[in-house]
Specification:
This protein is α/β, with parallel strands linked by helices. The protein contains twelve helices and ten strands. This is Phospholipid/glycerol acyltransferase domain-containing protein.
Amino acid sequence: MPIISWRLLYWPIRQLLFGIVFFSGCVTIVSIQWLILTINGRHTQEWLDDSKRWFIQLLTFCTCWFTSGTTLRLVFKDREAMARYYNAGQLQLPRRAIVIANHQMYTDWLYIWYLAYRNVGDMGAHIYIIMKESLKKLPILGYGMINYSFVFLARNWQRDAEKMACQFNETSKRDSFWMLIFPEGTNMSHNNREKSHQWARKTNKPIWNGVLLPRVKGLQLAVKEMGNQVITLTMGYKGCSLDRMAQDVFNVVQLYIWGNQPPLVSILIDVQTIDREVEPWIESHWQEKENEMLHYYSNGDFDGVYVDVPLVVGDKLVHILLLGALLSSLVAIYYKYLVNV
């Protein structure tokens, strides 16, 4: 009888375990959300915010255990900026702000959300993300994201403007919020860069290779409803270049099926105030991002001083307990509903 090498079984078992842990974790979170909404007490919003924290903890757990692991590099333009924004292992950033970033790949938001969760006084419970309307139809995940008050767009301004204004206004009433916006509207790819070039030629805009032309209307509305303080992030992934794009190298399949995480994610951090019309401000600021990305690809990192932060959930014991609890729950459900039918 032939002996099957453990190496042949490693990836199927690893993928199965990831699916079990992630799926059971998501089911657990949305079930608790449903219970919270059913009770509908005076702490409903606070508890829903807690469930938002649980989701980034679940994602971080899966990232740490089922991928090759990664490190976040927090980059600041100079030592003065680092002293202003980073102290004792925590980022000293505004707790009520619009957050904008270039969009390198679909999971940019994961690293930004993790940054909020671990390095900004637990802002992970107070982050709001703008995303495609189709995502709210995802089984289980869509229900959870709706309860997180994420903003879902149909990419039709007539349909989206009123809904965005309403959600921005409601969010602005909270004590703490980060509204995450990717002004480019889509991630960097060869096809999207060519579309950006075509639009730039048509509208007499600059042609950029490191970033895409930003869209203005959503940011204008956000500034009107939520204030003009902006945390601006520039994302860079080690191993990528102008032609070898992050979305090609580290897509979702590579990350969570094959376990290939970027070994280093550099995030250039700054805080600005939009003190003029949004359109000329964003165009000028995106030119800065273009220069930053060209420097990144030429030199392997952004220009500035930095501190490295490992992507971790916490103590290893927490990992083991969480994994054990999730697997135990799944086994109990299996025997209760499948074996005893």
